[in-house]
Each structure stands twice: as structure tokens, then as C-alpha cells.
Design goal:
Order of helices and strands: EHEHHEHHHHHEHEHHHHHH
CATH architecture of the largest domain: 3-Layer(aba) Sandwich
CATH class of the largest domain: Alpha Beta
Number of strands: 5
Distance between the termini: 21 Å
Number of helices: 15
Helix content: 40-55%
Largest sheet: 3 strands, parallel
Strand order of the largest sheet: 1-2-3
CATH topology of the largest domain: Rossmann fold
Radius of gyration: 22 Å
Structural class: mainly alpha
CATH superfamily of the largest domain: HUPs
Bound molecules: tryptophan
Length: 336
């Protein structure tokens, strides 16, 4: 019905309210979202319910952390006139669809999900897995399907969750009616960003560089990075493939990478200078972002308006989907 007004395909993605976002989030997700908003009907939500799977008993910071993420999303260039930016917990239809989808999947399938197994290991949960936590990917499927999204732009670590989303869409469609597209995964070109220590950059490991870090902080973190351990002196030949600083150059110095790799290999390039250059390109890359972020920090009303408007738009679509869902299942509709 609305097809002629908006024939773009729809994407949806979610980010947890971890507070200020880091350059791993930027490279793995946000940079792609900013690009894709011109091509797709874009929906992006901050998934505060998902974060409760781990921090259900520490909710004092969740509201502030949520706002920080919204500020980051706007400052990096998501444009609310193009993308719908909203908060998961303000659209209760996510929970409603999550409940219905939870009937369509068995426990064994959820327990076998590799992303889930990894989380249990990383967080050292063992016997302490809650009912809600096991259902994490079912809630994620609901986030996506309630907007009947065609694709989901994420990093490769999310692939198993998306496989499960497609299974749930197929199962629903086969059981009731063809309502849900099976969403594609839109992988980002650089799925993994190392921290200075070489492990995947993440807030929980504490090896992150924030997008909003000031240049002196960026420099300090970059200077601490582990490079090729065999390259001890400045003129020792190095192996860029195993160097964390080179991994950042690939992303932030795309025009120089070949020269950087060649001069590292030949021993013409010392690590200290190479790190200084990396710190400078990273700082410059986020220069405009830092300015915009400060402007938004001083203007919380604008940020709140964006959330309210986005949530209203998201709710409209989610309500329409839930109407179709109820009808296809034969559930009574109020007033029907
Ligand atoms: N699981 C995702 C992550 O940890 C977050 C997420 C929740 C998500 N719902 C989503 C991502 C829907 C994409 C689509 O990053």
C-alpha cells in the first residue's frame, strides 16, 4: 500500500547501550549504517532489553548509557530525516512478537547456538543462565521481524543469530502465513578490529579506543599497542600482517597502506613513527564527530526529540506487523 511512497528495502540493526561507543563498534557497524541510510529505509534501535540479559541487577546507569549511545549515533552522521532511530523498550511489540516466536523454537536449538555458547564462556556464566538470556536471539529475531526487515547490517559474529532469525521467519511463514521476509546479512567490510593488545576490541575487555576519546588519549592508547614482536629495533624488517597498528592503518589510512606495508617490511619504518601516524589519522577521522558530539551533549532536548519521533515511526510499523501476525494466527484483535 505504501510501496509507491517508499520502495526502498528496509534494514534494521541494534546496538546495546554500553555507554560511549568505540572504534570497533564504528568499523563493525556504525560506519556501514551511515553509508546505507542513503540506500535503504533504515531502522536502528538501542537494545536496552538485550543488555539486561547480563546487567539486570545493575540498572542505575542504563538510562545515561542509552543516551550516550544515541548521541554517538547522531554525531557520527545517522540522519534522523533518513533513518529511524529509536529505543527498543519503548516499542512493546518487540516483546509481544518475542513471546509468540518463543513457541516456535526448541530449547536444544537455542543451547547449540555458537554465539550463545561463546557468551556463556566469555561471561563465565556456567549454571547461571537465565530464561531471558537463552532467549536473547529470539528477542533479536523479534527486533528484526517486527519491522519485516529485508536485511541486517552487522559484524560476522552475529551470523549465527541471523541464521536463527531466518529459521524463525520460515517456521512462522510455514505455520501461519507468509508475513516475514527472510532477512539477509549485510556484512561490514572490516568485521574485526583489534585493540592495542591484539584481542578483539571490546568494552568488557577494557582494550577499547572510544570514538569520543580526545587526541591525547588516542595517542596514549595507540602508543601502547603490541606490534610485530620480532621487530625490536627501528630498522628491523617487520611483518605488518601480525601488527595491530597496521590493522588500524588498513582501516584509517587506506591510501597509504601499501607504502606502509612495504616500508615496514624493508625496515625503513620504525614502530614509534608508525604509531604516531596511526594516532593522527584516527584522531583526525573523528575530529568532526567530537565537535558534533559536544554540541549534542549541550542540547539533550534535541536528542530526546529524535528518540521520541523515531520511536513513534517505529511503533507504527511494529503495530501494523502485529496486526498481520494476530490475524494470521487467528488471535482475536481488539474491536474485531
Ligand atoms: N546482538 C547484537 C549485538 O550484540 C545486538 C542486537 C540486538 C541486534 N538486536 C539486534 C543486531 C537486531 C542486529 C539486529 O551486537
Amino acid at each position: 500500500m505504501l510501496r509507491h511512497m517508499n520502495s526502498k528495502k528496509r534494514i534494521l540493526s541494534g546496538v546495546q547501550p554500553t555507554g560511549k561507543l568505540h572504534i570497533g563498534n564504528y568499523v563493525g557497524a556504525l560506519s556501514n549504517w551511515v553509508k546505507l541510510q542513503h540506500q535503504y529505509d533504515s531502522f536502528h534501535c538501542v537494545v536496552d532489553w538485550h543488555s539486561l540479559t547480563v546487567t539486570y541487577d545493575q540498572t542505575e546507569r542504563i538510562a545515561d548509557d542509552t543516551l550516550e549511545v544515541f548521541i554517538d549515533l547522531l554525531a557520527i552522521g545517522l540522519d534522523p530525516s533518513k533513518a529511524t532511530i529509536f529505543l527498543q523498550s519503548m516499542v512493546p511489540e518487540h516483546a509481544e512478537l518475542h513471546l509468540l516466536l518463543s513457541m516456535l523454537i526448541n530449547l536444544g536449538r537455542l543451547e547449540r547456538n555458537p554465539t550463545f555458547k561463546e557468551r556463556v564462556k566469555d561471561l563465565d556464566l556456567r549454571g547461571e543462565v537465565s530464561y531471558g538470556h537463552l532467549g536473547y536471539p529470539v528477542l533479536q529475531a523479534a527486533d528484526i521481524l517486527v519491522y519485516r526487515a529485508h536485511a541486517v547490517p552487522v559484524g560476522e559474529d552475529q551470523a549465527p543469530h541471523l541464521e536463527l532469525t531466518r529459521e524463525l521467519a520460515r517456521k512462522f511463514n510455514a505455520t501461519y502465513a507468509e508475513i516475514f521476509p527472510e532477512p539477509d546479512t549485510l556484512l561490514t567490510p572490516f568485521p574485526r578490529v583489534p585493540g592495542p593488545d591484539g584481542r578483539k576490541m571490546s568494552k568488557s575487555l577494557g582494550n577499547h579506543i572510544l570514538m569520543s576519546d580526545e587526541p591525547d588519549v588516542i595517542t596514549k592508547k595507540v602508543m601502547s599497542a603490541i606490534t610485530d614482536p620480532e621487530k625490536i629495533r627501528k630498522d628491523d624488517p617487520g611483518n605488518p600482517e601480525i601488527c595491530n597498528v597496521y590493522a588500524w592503518h588498513i582501516i584509517f589510512s587506506p591510501d597509504q597502506v601499501e607504502t606502509i606495508a612495504a616500508t615496514c617490511r624493508s625496515g625503513e619504518r620504525g614502530c614509534v613513527m608508525c604509531k604516531q601516524e596511526a594516532a593522527a589519522v584516527i584522531s583526525n577521522h573523528f575530529g568532526e564527530f567530537r565537535e558534533e558530539r559536544k554540541r549534542l551533549e549541550a542540547d539533550p532536548d534535541t536528542v530526546k526529540d529524535v528518540i521520541i519521533t523515531g520511536t513513534r515511526k517505529a511503533s507504527e510499523v511494529a503495530k501494523e506487523t502485529m496486526g498481520l501476525v494476530r490475524d494470521s494466527m487467528g488471535l482475536l484483535r481488539p474491536g474485531a
